[in-house]
Amino acid sequence: MSNQARRRSGALLVALALGAVPAAAYAAGEQPELSAPAHEAFKIVSLGDSVSLGYEPGVTRATDIYGYADRLYVNALLHGRAELANYGALGLQSAGLTQLLAGAAQGRKLTADQLQDYSAYDPAAKAQADAVAASAPALRDSLADADLVTLTIGGNDFAALVRDLVGKTDADATASFEKTFDEKLNNYAEQLQANLRTLRSLAPQARIEVADQYSPVSKIVGDALYAQLNASIAKLSAKLDELKTSLAAEGVAVDIVHIGAAFQGKEVQYTHFSPIFGVTDIHPTQAGYESIARAFAAPVWPEYTEVAPSDKAADPAPTVYIKGKLLKTQNKPQLKSNTTFLALSDIAAATGAELQWDNKNKTATFKQNGREVKLTIGAKTIVVGGVKQALNVPAYLQTVGKESKTYVPLAAITQGLDYQVVYQAKLHTAFINS
């Protein structure tokens, strides 16, 4: 990537600088069991380069990010409470990851320059890496509690090789690639092995998954070079499989997630790389991130669910999932002052909460697991466990067909019943779990 292209990418990521951071004994090669007790969140930590961050060219806001980690988070939310901590850093290389993990182990805040050389990047891009580097102590805490750690690293180690092919003849490109690939592969594998040892020590309870690499180059470069590139990807993947076996013998359990094979033949669809149009950005498209998410999800869940975005223009009220099930009702959800309202009978049915209705006082009482939530139509307060709390918008009566339905604020009720409420802006969808 040219310095100018790097500066453009960095400027687009300025909004992400703050958004990036919200030893057990096992048999050799055996990953920890993935389970979360009731009312505890399944905790995911996404770590590595800009692919873990979910970056795409043209992104200007953190809320526009929807990468593989976000998709894993959504799938986790379909199974219960979940949390995601994303420590993906723009431009991070294997050596930079080594420094970041060392800072985490020491509980020491770092700067981007202490990770690696960021002199070729725009200050805005460097600021994003600075935010991640400074969060090294938080990374240590996140890893200590993690159930699942996903890692993408190495793309920036090999990216120069790919970009160097642009504009060269087939023969020259092949010769150039052959000369440097094996050396970089050996260095990469050696650093990755050391980083995975450190990562296992920091995340003793987590299933650790690391992705292999994909090639963004389609057959447009010529059959011979295309075949060589994919042979190299296969060699790298095999090297990581050997690494997994070697680490397992040490009692360091990791999974290798094979994304390279999934991208082969779909490079145009799965990446932004298009040298014909002068696009040298190798990041995944949304389709590419979907494919990566499926690969990471496979060892964790029997099935992967692709959740389609809700059309906010067609329906201002978000789509709602309660305890992993899509809310289907004839009583259309409503949005008032950025607050989602549902018919109280729908909330009771979806949560399984006991509902009592006092018609004289127009008051609804929800009871579940020893918790009680009470609210009255028109009142600007809600009573949770006997304590009054302010409401932005009170409950109200809504005409549905020929009936008058009581609509109540969804988040206020479910949070009062000790549910987790997560709104995914990119999907315009709310996930609610007990």
UniProtKB/TrEMBL annotation:
Superkingdom of this protein's organism:
Bacteria
Domain (Copper amine oxidase-like N-terminal) spans 322-430
Which InterPro entries does the record cross-reference, listed alphabetically?
Answer: Cu_amine_oxidase-like_N (IPR012854), Ester_Hydrolysis_Enzymes (IPR051532), GDSL (IPR001087), Mao_N_sf (IPR036582), SGNH_hydro_sf (IPR036514)
Which Pfam families does the record associate with it? Cu_amine_oxidN1, Lipase_GDSL
Q: Which residues form a coiled coil?
A: 189-246
Alphabetical keyword list: Coiled coil, Signal
Residues spanning the signal sequence = 1-27
Q: SUPFAM superfamilies, from UniProt?
A: Copper amine oxidase, domain N, SGNH hydrolase
Q: What is this protein called?
A: Stalk domain-containing protein
From which organism does this entry originate?
A: Cohnella hashimotonis
